[in-house]
Amino acid sequence: MANKMVKKIFVVDDDEMMSTLLEDYLTTKTFHEIKLFSTGEECLKNLREQPDVVILDFNLNSENKDAANGMQILESIKKINKYIHVIMLSGQDAYGTALQTIRKGAEDYVIKDEDAFEKIVAIIDGLS
User: Fold this and answer.
1) How far apart are CA 126 and CA 52, in angstroms?
2) 0.70 surpassed by pTM
3) Ramachandran class of 83: left when φ > 0, alpha when ψ lies in -120 to 50, beta otherwise
4) Domain ranges across the chain
């Protein structure tokens, strides 16, 4: 499986169903501790727990327009700890958006499609 067993994964998505499905999928792949957050602000408050990976929804503020979006949270995570791996998850199939998130420090950009969860596991397995 992985070179390093990932101990802590944060899933940040304001779509509760998506978060729960992803948590269930990751749990079946034997990853250890998975924590769900519906806002980026909640994630940032809990970074002291030092997650290995943050799976971050690009369109975080779709429900609450006052909340920070995924790009803002990505930038904040990288300022706090540049070693946390961030995987951006998005419904947008836009090359420019993907490139922008990678340039800002995301490990990868995964489009929410039928293969998204498998892609996320493959990315996590490839992390050292």
Assistant:
1) 13
2) yes
3) alpha
4) 92-116
Task: Name the one residue in this structure whose structure tokens are 């199939």.
Answer: 93
- Strands (DSSP E) found in 7-117: 8-12, 33-37, 53-57, 85-90, 108-111
Check residue 116 and give its pLDDT.
Answer: 94
H/E stretch holding 85: strand 85-90
Q: Work out the average pLDDT over 1-29.
A: 82
**pLDDT tens digits, one per residue of 32-75:** 789 999 999 999 999 999 999 999 999 887 566 677 889 999 99
Task: With CA atoms as reference, report the closest residue to 114 among 96, 95, 91, 94.
Answer: 91
The angle formed by the CA atoms of residues 112, 77 and 114, to the nearest 5 degrees, is 10
